[in-house]
């Protein structure tokens, strides 16, 4: 008599997980079960508890209650570094590699115990073999800091697999990849799935969930509210589970006032004349009028980000000038750009955005400190009051304005960065991928707030390759290899814009 083969134990089974941070209940008895070879999406609004769960199932923090098992075995003990390394890895948005070390060194970091020395040449050779074995085409002598985001992610995945991990958590892996990079990543992930590697996939891009994942779990307000097969779940039901809206859960689109809001005759608020940055973008003449939102669309390497950073004073142009309201702005100086009325939402909130130990209120009002009290003194009550208004208009999930900003979830930190840029009432706002890491529903609220800067007579430049970001624009310039290759009026088609961003029809 033959017995049916028992189903293999799940790659991950977490159950009844509770985690508190002081008064915040971050996880309230949640679970997550991932089958071997499955790509399982974990989704939810900002602050829902996704990262907290990830830190528990990767051994970085301990739950207050609940159990975690991998392939039917209990999780390694808290300090058992080697045990965790050979079980699970997380590819974060922030690099976990050591930037100054080479790929080979990063791959073999902590791998050899004391007394197990290995020569550099042998190390490089083994690193080369390892990468080739996983189909990763990177020179092991490259310093980690010189890798592209895509290469760095592949190196981190190869490293985890070489330790024997069969479960990999990907935390917004596509946030900094262009369309082709995303497809290459997905191809690689599908190959690995076929070999039995399982993935937990965290993303605010629901179309990616539908493209890559077979199962999805939704957390909302620290609770697990749904686990379903992706193919059987319509997107509006998924969004409804995330937001808790019942009935008409259709996504709100931000009200776009369209080109009519920009008065064609008015003098531009923000203008550039022959502005150029060698190696990044060719001479550029821009004129953004009051009420106008201009989109600069392009992959990160297209020069669009460099233009945004130059406008904000982060980088100094090689030639040309920038004016706000007809007055020239001193180049390459953030304080001077601020003084001229330029507000800036940077892409990388970790490096350019926030002061971690300070409160939400202080971070949100850093640029207005001089306005909140006489002679440079900041009165806490006023800071808080000001911050409270921003917290509510941007729907920032926090216990209050006094909470340290580092305690906020990633998406909520990004909203604080936006709040800070808006706090001064900028005449011209430069926003670089403003909705990165922000959940589906908050995206709309955030873009509406950005749009309002224009509606109140300001000029806005949104640098992004996200179509949702670009839809609020009155006009979109597509960039490729540092040049404007197309100019789209309101009402463009997704296909045409994507083709222009990818340089279709352009010579490389
Ligand atoms: N170290 C901490 N101290 C205090 N509170 C924290 C800490 N880490 C997380 N939290 C809180 O726990 C809750 C869950 O946060 P978590 O980072 O897990 O959310 P998330 O779902 O990953 O959100 P996002 O989509 O924005 O990344 C939030 O309310 C957050 O403020």
From TrEMBL:
Region annotation (Disordered) ranges: 245-266
Domain ABC transporter intervals: 12-246, 264-506
One protein family per Pfam: ABC_tran
GO MF annotations in UniProt: ATP binding; ATP hydrolysis activity
InterPro entries referenced in this protein's UniProt entry, alphabetically: AAA+_ATPase, ABC_carbohydrate_import_ATPase, ABC_transporter-like_ATP-bd, ABC_transporter-like_CS, P-loop_NTPase
Biased composition regions of type Low complexity, renumbered to the chain: 255-266
Keyword Nucleotide-binding: yes
Keywords: ATP-binding, Nucleotide-binding, Repeat, Transport
Protein name per Swiss-Prot or TrEMBL: Sugar ABC transporter ATP-binding protein
């Amino acid at each position: 008599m033959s017995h049916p083969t028992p189903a293999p134990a799940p790659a991950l089974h977490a159950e009844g997980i509770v985690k508190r941070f002081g008064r915040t209940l971050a996880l309230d008895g949640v679970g997550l079960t991932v089958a071997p070879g499955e790509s399982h999406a974990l989704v939810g609004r900002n602050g829902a508890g996704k990262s907290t769960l990830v830190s528990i199932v990767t051994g970085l923090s301990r739950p207050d209650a609940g159990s975690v098992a991998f392939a039917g075995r209990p999780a390694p003990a808290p300090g058992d570094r080697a045990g965790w390394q050979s079980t699970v890895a997380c590819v974060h948005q922030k690099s976990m590699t050591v930037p100054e070390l080479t790929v080979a060194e990063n791959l073999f970091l902590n791998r050899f115990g004391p007394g197990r020395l290995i020569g550099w040449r042998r190390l490089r050779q083994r690193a080369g073999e390892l990468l080739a074995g996983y189909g990763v085409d990177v020179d092991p002598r490259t310093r980690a800091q010189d890798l592209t985001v895509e290469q760095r992610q592949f190196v981190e995945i190869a490293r985890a697999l070489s330790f024997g991990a069969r479960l990999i958590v990907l935390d917004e892996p596509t946030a900094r990849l262009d369309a082709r990079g995303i497809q290459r990543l997905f191809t690689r992930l599908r190959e690995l799935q076929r070999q039995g590697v399982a993935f937990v996939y965290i993303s605010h891009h629901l179309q990616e969930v539908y493209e890559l994942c077979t199962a999805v779990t939704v957390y909302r307000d620290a609770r697990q509210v749904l686990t379903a097969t992706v193919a059987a779940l319509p997107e509006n039901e998924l969004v409804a589970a995330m937001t808790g809206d019942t009935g008409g859960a259709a996504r709100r689109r931000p009200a776009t006032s369209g080109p009519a809001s920009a008065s064609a005759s008015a003098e531009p608020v923000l203008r550039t004349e022959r502005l150029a940055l060698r190696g990044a973008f060719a001479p550029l003449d821009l004129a953004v009028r009051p009420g106008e939102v201009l989109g600069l669309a392009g992959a990160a390497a297209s020069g669009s980000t460099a233009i945004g950073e130059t406008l904000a004073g982060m980088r100094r142009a090689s030639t040309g000038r920038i004016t706000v309201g007809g007055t020239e702005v001193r180049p390459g100086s953030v304080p001077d750009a601020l003084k001229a009325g330029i507000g800036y939402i940077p892409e990388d909130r970790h490096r350019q955005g926030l002061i971690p130990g300070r409160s939400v209120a202080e971070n949100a009002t850093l640029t207005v400190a001089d306005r909140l009290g006489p002679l440079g003194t900041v009165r806490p009550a006023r800071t808080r009051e000001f911050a409270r208004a921003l917290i509510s208009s941007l729907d920032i999930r926090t216990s209050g304005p006094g909470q340290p900003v580092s305690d906020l979830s990633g998406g909520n930190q990004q909203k604080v960065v936006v709040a800070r840029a808006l706090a001064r009432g900028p005449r011209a706002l430069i926003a670089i991928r403003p909705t990165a890491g922000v959940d589906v529903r908050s995206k709309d609220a955030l873009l509406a707030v950005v749009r309002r800067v224009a509606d109140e007579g300001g000029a806005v430049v949104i640098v992004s390759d996200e179509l949702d970001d670009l839809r609020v624009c009155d006009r979109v310039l597509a960039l490729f290899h540092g040049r404007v290759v197309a100019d789209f009026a309101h009402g463009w088609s997704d296909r045409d814009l994507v083709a222009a961003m990818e340089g279709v029809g352009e010579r490389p």
